[in-house]
Each structure stands twice: as structure tokens, then as C-alpha cells.
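Deliverable D5.2: sample structural annotation.
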Amino acid sequence: MTATLETAERPGSPEADTRVVAYGWNPRTTLWIGAVLAALLVVVDILVAAGVDAPPAWARTLMACAGVLLLPGIPIVVALRVPGRALSTVLIVAVSTSTQILVTQGTIIQELWNPLVTQAVIAVASLLGCLWAFRSVPGTTRSPSSRLGRADWALRRWLSLAGLAASLVCFIVATDLLDILTVGHFGVIAHLTIWYFVGLGLLAAVIVVGVTARRLDPIVLSASVAMAVVYNTMLVGAATGETSIPTSFVHRGFINVLAEGHRLPDHIDARFSWAGFFSLFAHVQTAAGLDDTVDLLVWAPLVAGVALSFGLYAIAVAITGRARLAWVAVLLYHGFNWYQQDYFAPQALATIGYVAIIGVLLWQLRAAPLPDPGTRGVRRIVGLLRRTPGRVPGYGPGRTLAMEIVLLLIVTALVVAHQMTPILTVMALVAFAVTGTTRYRTLWIAAGLIFAAWFSYGATDFWFGHMQSIVDDIGQVGQSVGSGVSDRLNGDPTYTRMQYLRMLASGGFAAVAFVGWCLNRSSRAWLVGGLLSAAPFLLMVLQSYGGEMVIRSFLLASPMLAPYAALALASVGAMVRRAIPHPARWSRIAGLVLIWLGVVALGCLETTNRGLNTAFEASTRDEVVLSMDFIQSVEPETRVMSIGHAPHTIAPRRVLDPTGPRFSYIDSNECLENLGECVAERSPDYVYITNQGMKMSALQYGADTDRAQAQIDGLVASGAYEVITRTDSIEILRATGREEAGTR
């Protein structure tokens, strides 16, 4: 066996060619895709540098984004011979984005900023990597069937795909009829038409038929997952044409700051201490010839959700050992993912990287020989601590080490791109090490040292200004829970009661997953799986994370909770089958109808929970365009008083220009109830009011917005201010006597 593993490391040897090597995708086809994409990027860069008309902006943008997601991950993953489509796909995305984060962050730190050159260098290296990886592909390979042959296109598949197409049409019609300005304390669910629910019912029917079929159809199930992501993440974005999360516009502004300034600004915002994500997309913006990343924001949740689904499947199939349950786990994850952290943000990319790492380690655990740690008691604990699994079949010392280096690459990118996910990753690596379920027993030490080094060097702006709060938060679990739960149960009474649905969904999901974990004790991943599920909640001991740590804990635990929840549901199904061993036809149909109703109910619950904040999170095109026009045209050192935090106004002029506009915020009941006095006391040059800010004041602070609007009208009636911009979603007042600025 040792000889076989070693000869597999030498592609040119006769022994290597006699063994069939498994790949997730056809390796040669995959490498051709990578090589063609890399070559196209090189050609485009040469054309742009020579001043020749490049491809259309949309084509250049698609190629740049495809390069970020696929290069240089394709040749690296093919050379590593990673089996399984799901695992190889999420690993390609994680390796590619991690490499480009580190490269672009390095160029901006070293003041070597030149996105066209950087993109060309990465593309050339990827092209050479593809050519080299071709040589590593043995003569005999195996990959899963594509299921695209003529015999696979049976009537069931055609009907399922037709159902999904009809569901998409219903979704588009529903979003076209949705007016987000009318959304109130019940969230978006109360303003959806029958079209949405018909489409959801069709999607649920396809899902039920797909997961209960005797022979699973990956084409239909993949399309169903993608459609579930559309329903979960694109509802508000499709209705408005803008992202549903206002913080996306803050990130857009940060990216513009880097694209314009070509350096990391000092003492501006602590998030620049983890600027990997912003550096990456500043590079994409410039390399693609975009003036702004605003058109990417609305599509980011869909891309992130689909990419993450591959990693979720890889984890679920390693935990459950069954493809059917893995599909159910992926759908359950999306059915309870109301946290809205898959928007255009570092957290979305960090989650993909984290899931890729866990997926690789669980695959290795499932595939590799695992020594018995011994008897129970102290000796078993010592055995676990000392145990080291064997190598994955087909992996010699070289590829095993190469995989560890790749995982360390992803960890390093997480460290420079996000604050909390690297800490969780270190915890996860410790869990694998102490349970003796990975060969990479010291990887957690390397990851911890990289995190400590970056925190000391790259995050100085953060810890210089926040050291006291960092120290004070440690061990304050009650404070973390309070700021994440009880402090959010304020404001409008109906909106507050609706928050309990979110708590019920997350708590119920975790409880069902716990039952599934308890029933799965025979699995070799049982102990480490439990630790991985619990690890995110330990983060609450370290930080409150601005009141978001409870939400982030459930979010980061969900990739592990979903497979165990699927196992629990499978156990319920097994109990029913034992109770009714030979069900009549009508009872089978009734069972399918009950499952369909359950899926529809889950979809409605998820739509309610995810869309609960739509009133003060959704943006209109007016808010986006007119806010930017306003920022670009106001006079130097203008004082602006804003209702809400004005994320649409974050731009280089506001951040970098020392004479740029200066904002103060109306974010308390006292100021809203006495708006006239507040304005008179601060005497701003402009008053900036958006539907978003007014709705947030009403729902989260319980303010009387009718009274506030009356006082705003009073400011105009008094002659102290005049209206220069007014639409249904944005209003800007200028102090009388100021020069004209962006009148609409």
C-alpha cells in the first residue's frame, strides 16, 4: 500500500498510470476552462494597457469576477486531486479568493498598486499552473457522472425544471409588484402578493419530489438549491434593483477610498485593519474598468449563497454519509439563514473559506484510516490526544503536505480579511487536534501565530483605539447576550414581538440539530462535530462584536447544525416507516403533502424572518443616486445633520477629503421628539432625511415619525430651511442662504 501511495506522487511512472484517480470534475476539462479564462484575462489586460477598445464593460466585469473565483484555484485543486464535486468546487473558490486577497492586500501595503499588472501576473501564473497541472493528471481518471446524457433527460426532470422555471417567473412578477416604501413593522411578508406564494409552493413541490425520489437527480436538486437561494436572498434586491443591506454601501465607499487613494487610510475606520476584502474588490473595480462596485452589490448574496452551498454539501455528506441527507442539510441551512450576513461583506467570503477548511478536514477524517484511541476513561482521553489518522488513500507525503499549505493559505487570507472568523478557525483546528481527527495536529499553532502577528502589525488602528473595550468584553457572556438579544427588543411593540419568530427559528433549529447529534454517536466525526457546532458560541466569551455576536454565533454554527438537523429528520422518517411498514398509496401521498406543507411553512417563516428589517434596510435608487450627487456637490466643510447613519453617503470625499462634509446623526428619541430644537442647537447647513432613517427611528427606537415629519415641515415653513431634494424616499433641506448644491 505504501508503494502505491508513493508512486501515485510521480505522475510519469508506469505504476501511477495503472491506478484510477478520482476527481471531483473532469480534470482536463476543468484545466481547459482555467487556461482559457487566464488567457482571456491576459489578452484583455494587454488591450487595455495598449489603449485599444476592450470588451464591453459587462464582459470585462464578468471575466474579472470569474478570475477572482476560479484562479489560481483550478490548477491547484486539480493538482491536489481532490475528489467530490462539492468539495473541489468550494476549495477552488476559497483558494482563488484567498490568493487574490493576499496578493492585492500585499500590493496596497507595499505601495505597488497596479490592478492591471496584478491581474495579468495572476492570470499568467494560473495559465502556467494549468499547463503544469495537465502533466500531473494520470492516464486513467474517474469523476462523477454529469448526468447530462440523453437517457438522463426523463419526463420527471423536464417537469421539475419546468416547475422551477414557473417558480422563477412567479418570483419576478412578485418582486415587480412589491413596493418596499409601504413595508412596516411586519416586514416584507405582509406586502407580498399571491404570486410569491404560488412560486414558493412550486419550488417546495420540486424540492419534495427531488429529495424523496428513489434516484436523486443532481441537476434538479442543484437548480432547486439555487432557486432557494434566489427566494431567500434576492427578494428585496430584485424589487428595488439595489442591495437589501445598507452596510453594503459602506463597503462600497471603503472600496472607492482604496481605489482612489491606493493605500490604507490611517485612523479612519477600524475595519481597514482587516482590509483584505476591500483591497480585493478595489482591485476588481479598477481591473474591470468600473467607476463603482454598486452594480455588484445586489448580486453578491446570490453568488455567495451558491458558492457556499458546495461547501455545505461537502460537510453534510461527510457527517451524514448519505447524499440525500446532504441535500436536505443544504436546503435546511438556507431555510434558517435569516441572518443576512451573505451580503457584499468580508463575512460572506470568510464563511466560504471557513466552510472549505472544515469540509477538507472532515473529508480526510471520513476517508483516512483512524486508529482506535483505546478503552474508556483517562486512557481513552490520552489516546485521543496522541492519535494521528493515516493518510487519505491516494495521498502520499507530498500531497498531504501540499493540502496543509493550502489550508494555511486560506487561514492567512481569513486573518487579513475578517476579525472574528479566524479566531473560530483556530478553535476548530484545536478541536480536530485534541480529538485526534486530523494529521495536521500543529496547524492550529501556525494559524494562531499568523493571527497574533497580524493583530499586532496590521490591526494597530483597531486595538490602539479599542483595547479597553476588548479587555472589558472578555468573559462578559451576559453582556454579549444582552446586547445581541434583549437590547434589540425595543422600539415598536409589533416589531419587537416579531423578533421572537427569529429567536424561535434559531433556537428550534439548534435544538433539532442537538437531537440529531445525540442520535449519531456511532460516527467517527461525532465528538469533533459536536465541538465544531459549539465552538461559535464560545466567541461570546471573547467579544460582543457590537451586539452581533449572538447572531454571528448561530450563523457560523449553522454549517454544522444543518447536517445534524437532517439526521434528526431522517430518524423521524425512519420511525414513521417502522410504525407503518407497508403504507397504502393514499397514505404515501398524504405524507408527501404533509412534507410539502412543512417546506412551504418553512419558506414563509424564512421570508418573514429575513425580511423583517426591510422597512429600514431596503434602499431605493433615489437614495443611492441622489445621496452620492449630494456628497459630490456640497460645499467644503459642510455640516450635515442626518436621520440615521447615512450609509449611502460614504465616499472618498467624505472619508479622505479634510474639507469634506461633516455628519452628525439623529439617532435618539429625545432629538426626534424635539427635532426643531435639535436642529436649532446644532445649526447644520443641511438636514439629510431618508425613508430608511425614518423607518429605523420608528421601529428600533419607537419614535413618532409623524411628529418628526411635522417638525421637518415646520423647519421649511419657518423659512430657516428650504427643500433642495424631495422624492418618496429621500429629502434634503438646506439652510436658507446657502449656495445651490445638487437640487432635485
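Annotation notes: The CA atoms of residues 483 and 618 lie 24 Å apart. Strands lie at 21-22, 141-142, 639-643, 662-666, 686-690, 721-726, 730-735.
The annotation will be released with the project's public dataset once the embargo ends.
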